[in-house]
Design brief:
By secondary structure, the protein is α/β, with parallel strands linked by helices. The protein has one domain (about 1-190): Maf protein, CATH 3.90.950. It contains seven helices and seven strands, in the order βαβααββαββαβαα. It has helices at about 10-15, 30-35, 45-60, 85-95, 135-145, 170-175, 180-190, and strands at about 1-5, 20-25, 65-75, 80, 100-110, 115-130, 165-170. Strand 1 (about 1-5), helix 1 (about 10-15) and strand 2 form a beta-alpha-beta unit. Helix 4 packs across helix 5 (about 135-145). It is globular, with a radius of gyration of 17 Å.
Length: about 190
Amino acid sequence: MLILASQSASRRAMLDAAGVPHAAEPASVDERAIEAALTDSAPATVALTLARAKAAAVSARRPGAAVLGSDSLVVCAGRRFDKPRDRAEAAEHLRFFSGRTLELHSAAALVRDGEVLWDHADRAGLVVRRLSEDFLAGYLDREWPAVAGCVGVFRIEALGVQLFEAIDGSHFTVLGMPLLPVLSALRQHGILVP
């Protein structure tokens, strides 16, 4: 049985839709402290480090289990963004993103008994259209607090799709996990039938 080191609804839904039996268990790691130690690191490195840390934390409690950790982060105009603390900060993030391109970095790591068996990072570029104040207010009226746990303040599978003019990259990466490489790794390590 695979354990997903996350409570992310979109990651669970991806695994469910792909027919991957799993249980979910939160990792409870201090993501901000890990990020602070990696201030000068490339975004992919930060996402990979966080994915590994989440998987390792759950692996320590689940001997012998295969644990999948995943993380996503957004960079826009050279600035890294975390999940918004509140609705006002969500609006600030969206105003900053307006008319710019987001880089979404999603990573995953597979860990068993504290050993990283596999990891992978992917990137998607999302071109944000110019967002009016009326749109922002209506968007947050409908999507808050559902997007509070989303690093880019959007759910691409919901109203968040209206933020964008173009997307370059895997749909799964945008949802928060590089699913096709994950599935390949699960087959490679005997968790799924090859």
